[in-house]
Design goal:
747 residues, five-stranded antiparallel β-sheet, 24 helices, 12% strand
């Protein structure tokens, strides 16, 4: 056991490697909540160092350290990172996180939960860094400078990985830059000095150390500008989060605005109408607060829908996974809200207030909802793809920012694709804003024209059924802005108002939501559609529905010209039929999608096959890898001995191969510097051994190098004797000899 005790140099390397890895892993503080990521990562570093030390001390091949690392990764990683016992499900989750966890991390709004399955990433990073850092530090061959540099490069690579997996805002420039540089340069200088010959000179050791420390400090300080450039600037720092597309398509869900007529008052009872049904009960939000169902920021000529990558010069306009805590810095009033969904609400759109700071699901399929929850920072829109149902309850904290906009507000000018889709409003954008000069003034002028000249109708009364639902181009052009009388409800007015604003030059989008009443009980009649305008500071401000829509109803009989037009032009049907829920799929569709996703993830294998593969196949694979690594190491050793440059070395290697094979078979052959080949031959259970030993001595100690043919002949004789020794023992003994590590131990 004394060979397992680390030496002084080994301890110094281990401490410096641990310190450098700790400094690198600290960069994940802006990515995870709490310190769990640091504890898990450093545990991996320590275990990796221990495994590498044990295998190198016993002179096991490097593959043995890798295989043992896989075993430790599973056995320790399950309780440490997943808080679960090792088993088939834990093994599957660990494998899934290793393969796809990085993508989940990069598509989750930071900081992510510091006690969730994404802790597998710092766990595997730490374990690999500890293994590689120690294995490369124990190399005994190769150039001195390379052996000194390799272990220092491991924590440097870990730091690069942490930066790439992190966020644009660094945790600490001094810690990741200066402190890490001091540790790396100091460790490198120490290893170079250790590998070099001692310096002879008049300067004392203490003065050399002081001078070296001063130089390291100076180099680290000089490196600060470089570290600041590499890790400091939000604009210049390269992180993978900027380039990875979230694996989620919001376009698969129909626009909730297209089913707005489900919330209007019907003249006759309707089973699917939600006007008088409770959608949700809101606690904690002040009266008059706007609770949004969805922000719709893309118009394709058919519907206003939710989309991604619609805000120019922004990386936050995607639907990303979020944890219980959301990094969403906004100035405003804090609110603490609890929402309970009522009988009239289902689907995937999650109603929220303001800019979310945290989210917790309390009732319903909480684990499934939390896992599938997505949030768009740019539009403050939340979705739960697994589906919502009456009775679901969730709690969140948020910030209600100032959302007032006036005609004097300065717009941002960052127009999206909606400005192009509003081409059919060229004339109206000019005529309805005549007399105003600034873009925001023109928007308010157009809004006033809509409010004063338009009429309100839901198109459900018998005399008003000519006013169709929908907000496709023909409905908005021929049947609204170009009609003798503009008639519609929130759906048409909000759709036209947002398009007009974009055409004028002010970024705008449509929001479907509700205004919270005094009792907090939101019914279908409280649902409205309004418009949001983007101002110069990048924030979005609310243009209330009453600014561009009045409630005056049209005359019961439309004008003659309208009657004639309606007789010659058949209005098209609504292009998208109202969905069965809040513009979502029904439960059967959601379950079918979830089943398809599960089938895709499992590769279509039956459940029992997956259990057998995980519970039996994976442990068996680990055992096979571990055992085969021993056989592979012996094959490589034999090949190296047979291919030595000098012929005498080949003959010496052949004799050692015979001795090692005898020892693996259990024969007590003495080895070491004090034993000659003739003395060893007497312990090898072979009548040919003494002759082979004498022949080897003649070749090695002869007047010249033996010819290559002699070396080949000697190897052939040794191979034949090895095979004869194997045939004389039982098959089980032969198997044990093939897997024996006896000849790799220190002699």
């Amino acid at each position: 056991m004394s060979r397992l005790l680390p030496g002084r140099h080994d301890l110094v390397d281990a401490v410096l490697l641990l310190a450098a890895c700790a400094t690198a892993l600290s960069g994940l503080a802006t990515t995870y909540t709490g310190v769990g990521h640091l504890v898990v990562g450093l545990t991996g570093v320590v275990l990796g160092i221990v495994l590498a030390h044990v295998t190198t001390s016993l002179r096991w091949p490097g593959i043995a350290a890798v295989v043992l690392g896989i075993v430790v990764f599973v056995l320790v990683g399950a309780p440490l990172a997943l808080h679960a016992a090792p088993g088939p499900s834990a093994v599957g989750e660990l494998g899934d996180q290793v393969l796809f966890g990085w993508k989940d991390l990069l598509t989750t709004v930071p900081p992510v939960d510091g006690d969730g399955p994404l802790l597998v990433l710092p766990w595997v990073l730490g374990l690999v860094a500890g293994l590689l850092g120690t294995l490369t530090g124990r190399l005994r061959s190769g150039p001195v400078w390379l052996r000194a540099v390799l272990p220092v490069l491991v924590p440097a690579a870990l730091l690069v990985a942490v930066i790439l997996l992190g966020v644009a805002r660094p945790q600490s420039v001094w810690l990741q830059g200066v402190v890490f540089t001091v540790l790396a340069i100091g460790w490198l200088a120490l290893r170079v000095q250790r590998s070099s010959a001692p310096v002879r000179g008049g300067i004392g050791r203490g003065r050399r150390l002081a001078l070296g420390a001063a130089m390291v400090g100076l180099a680290a300080t000089a490196a600060l500008p470089v570290a600041t450039w590499a890790t400091g600037s939000d604009d210049g720092r390269v992180v993978l989060r900027t380039y990875v597309e979230p694996p989620f398509d919001i376009g698969q869900y129909p626009s909730p605005l297209s089913s707005f007529r489900r919330y209007v008052k019907m003249p006759k009872p309707d089973a699917v109408n939600l006007h008088d049904k409770t959608l949700m009960t809101v606690e904690g939000a002040p009266e008059g607060a706007r609770i949004r169902i969805a922000a719709l920021d893309r118009y394709d000529g058919v519907v206003w829908g939710a989309a991604e990558d619609t805000v120019p010069n922004s990386s936050d306009d995607t639907f990303q996974r979020v944890s219980s805590t959301i990094d969403n810095p906004v100035d405003g009033d804090d609110v603490d809200v609890t929402v309970t969904l009522g009988e009239g609400y289902s689907g995937v759109w999650l109603p929220t207030v303001g800019a979310l700071q945290s989210m917790e699901f309390e009732d319903g399929a909480t684990e499934e909802m939390a896992e599938s929850f997505r949030y768009n920072l740019a539009t403050a829109t939340a979705v739960v793809p697994s589906g919502l149902a009456p009775g679901d309850r969730y709690h969140f904290t948020a910030v209600r920012a100032d959302d007032e906009v006036t005609a004097t507000s300065v717009p941002s000018g960052s127009l999206g694709e909606a400005a192009l889709a509003a081409g059919f409003l060229d004339t109206q954008a000019v005529q309805w804003s005549a007399g105003a000069s600034e873009p925001m003034e023109r928007v308010f002028a157009a809004a006033e024209h809509l409010r004063t000249e338009g009429k309100y109708s839901d198109g459900v009364l018998e005399s008003e059924k000519i006013y169709h639902a929908g907000h496709h181009v023909r409905r908005l052009a021929e049947e609204f802005v170009n009609a003798p009388i503009m008639v519609g409800n929130d759906e048409q007015y909000a759709a036209v108002m947002a398009l007009l604003a974009n055409k004028i030059g002010v970024p705008a989008r449509v929001v479907l939501g509700a205004v919270v009443p005094d009792d907090g009980v939101v019914q279908g009649k409280d649902v409205h559609a309004w418009v949001e305008l983007q101002v110069a500071d990048g924030s979005w401000r609310t243009l209330p529905t009453e600014t561009f829509m009045d409630t005056d109803r049209p005359a019961e009989q439309p004008p003659l010209t309208e009657q004639e037009m309606s007789g010659t032009v058949v209005p098209p049907p609504a292009p998208i039929p109202p969905p069965s829920t809040l513009a979502e799929q029904n439960d059967a569709e959601l379950n079918a999608r979830k089943g398809d996703r599960d089938a895709d993830e499992s590769g279509g294998l039956p459940a029992w096959v997956r259990v057998v593969l995980l519970y039996v196949g994976l442990p068996l694979l680990v055992v096979v890898l571990l055992l085969s690594s021993v056989v592979l190491a012996k094959v490589l050793r034999r090949r190296r001995r047979r291919a030595a440059d000098r012929m005498s070395a080949r003959i010496v290697g052949a004799w050692r191969e015979l001795v090692d094979h005898a020892r693996d078979l259990g024969q007590p052959v003495p080895v070491g510097a004090g034993w000659t080949r003739r003395e060893q031959s007497s312990s090898v259970a072979s009548p040919q051994a003494p002759g082979l030993a004498a022949l080897a001595d003649r070749h090695v100690f002869g007047p010249g190098q033996p010819p290559e043919a002699a070396a080949a002949s000697y190897w052939a004789a040794v191979d034949a004797e090895r095979h004869r020794l194997s045939r004389e023992v039982p098959r089980l003994r032969r198997l044990r000899a093939a897997l024996s590590l006896r000849t790799f131990r220190r002699r």
